[in-house]
Amino acid sequence: MSARIVDLFSDTKTRPTAAMRAAMAAAEVGDERAGEDPTVNALVERCAALLGKEAALYLPSGTMCNEIALAVHCRPGDEVLCDATAHIVGFEGGGPAALAGVMLNTIAGRRGIFDAAQLQAKLRADNPQAPRQRLLEVEQTSNLGGGAVWPLATLRAVAATARAAGLAAHMDGARLFNAVVACGVSAAEYARDFDSVWVDFSKGLGAPGGAVLVGTRAFVAEARRWQYRIGGAMRQSGIIAAACLYALDHHVERLAEDHAHARRLAEGLAALPGVVIDPATVETNLVYFEVADPRFDAAALAAATLARGVRLCPMGPRLLRAVTHLDVGAQDIDTALAALADVLRG
After folding, report:
1. Other residues' Cβ atoms within 10 Å of the Cβ of residue 151
2. Residues 194-219 pLDDT 10s
3. To bridge 242 with a disulfide, which of 27, 56, 190, 299 should be the other Cys (CB 3.0-4.6 Å)?
4. Neighbours of 136 (CB within 10 A)
5. What class has domain 254-344?
6. Are 18-250 and 254-344 the same fold in CATH?
7. Backbone angles phi, psi at 22, to 5 degrees
8. What percent of the chain has pLDDT over 70?
């Protein structure tokens, strides 16, 4: 048997627990595409209520949620305003252009977060020579912002600015539950001023896949058409939806453990030579740090730690990311810090 790896590459590396697998095996299923899967129906009803929206749709991935939302809110040639670090900009295979036919007008926020004044500066009067500005998009929490949490007041201010200009608002909630646990603000409060929101189950919540997109009944009806159009409709998907329901019951509050592990990791990293990090910037489960040791770039340091049983994610020439999650315990943080110390002090 191969030695266990402490995998800090991403919270997508989580695996279903034994209890989650049991819930999946016991799931009552039906034809989801025909609306006959009772477990999927229970999940979407629960998510709609949790996020304070009228209806919801279960989809295979968060990327599909984003792409369908863009396609429903916009028409080809329209413009979406978002942060320069947004997932839709750099991590969805050009989907906004290829699928929805939209243009992305990016805002240079701080750690993935911009304010109402920055958004207002990007707005313009309607001009037939320019793309029609149709949608505001935000990402809670911000991945490339180091897991930074959008303050509730900032979310409400940018949403109000967008609405006053006639734009709809969409929230990428891939790690929304991390924000909920970190700040004590409910998912419904974060989602209140947004026309569409989605939540992911395959990251910190530990399910093997799936995301739920919510909005008005009319929005979800059109989203379902896009679900069929791009191959997102499934059949007996209650087997996976059961894992999502289990996660809502058992894996949300425990995200606080991931946040505590991330803070301890950041504090340990700050004590190592050749590492640049401000532990105060670690708000949730994402830990970004730079390597200043001239012997290593990010790729070389990641390779050296992997040889010692710890997997990190290079994010730039000298930037790395470590992500805490369900499969990472306190002892694993000690192991990771020991491996990094061995490399950097060697």
Report:
1. 14
2. 999 999 999 999 999 999 999 999 99
3. 27
4. 26
5. alpha beta
6. no
7. -65, -40
8. 99
- Give the count of beta carbons closer than 10 Å to the beta carbon of residue 106: 16
Cβ burial of 309 (10 Å; 0-12, 13-18, 19+) is middle
Looking at the DSSP bridge assignments, the partners of residue 81 are: 105, 136
What ranges do the domains of the chain cover? Answer: 18-250, 254-344
- What fold characterizes domain 18-250? Aspartate Aminotransferase; domain 2 (3.40.640)
The Cα–Cα gap between 288 and 266 comes to 8
pLDDT tens digits along 117-139: 999 999 999 999 999 999 999 99
- The answer, yes or no, to whether the previous bond of 141 is cis (omega within 30 of 0) is yes
Token output for 316: 């730039």
CB environment 273-293: b (16+ within 10 A), e (fewer): ebbebebebbbbbbbbbbbeb
Alpha-helical segments (H) within the chain? 18-25, 38-51, 62-73, 87-90, 95, 116-122, 152-164, 176-183, 187-191, 217-229, 238-250, 255-270, 298-306, 330-344
Q: Model confidence over 224-263: pLDDT tens digits? A: 999 999 999 999 999 999 999 999 999 999 999 999 999 9
Q: What spatial distance separates the first Cα and last Cα of the chain, rounded to whole Å?
A: 28
Alpha carbons 270 and 341: distance in angstroms, whole number: 11
Residue whose tokens read 């209520």: 49
Token output for 231: 């191959």
Q: What pLDDT is attached to residue 1?
A: 38
Buried b (16+ CB within 10 A) or exposed e, 228-251: eeeebbbebbbbbbbbbbbbbeeb
Name the pTM for this structure.
Answer: 0.96
* Number of neighbours of residue 18 by Cβ within 10 angstroms: 7
For residue 314, give the H/E element and its range.
strand 313-314
154 burial (CB, 10 Å; 0-12 / 13-18 / 19+) is middle
Element spanning 320, H or E: strand 319-323
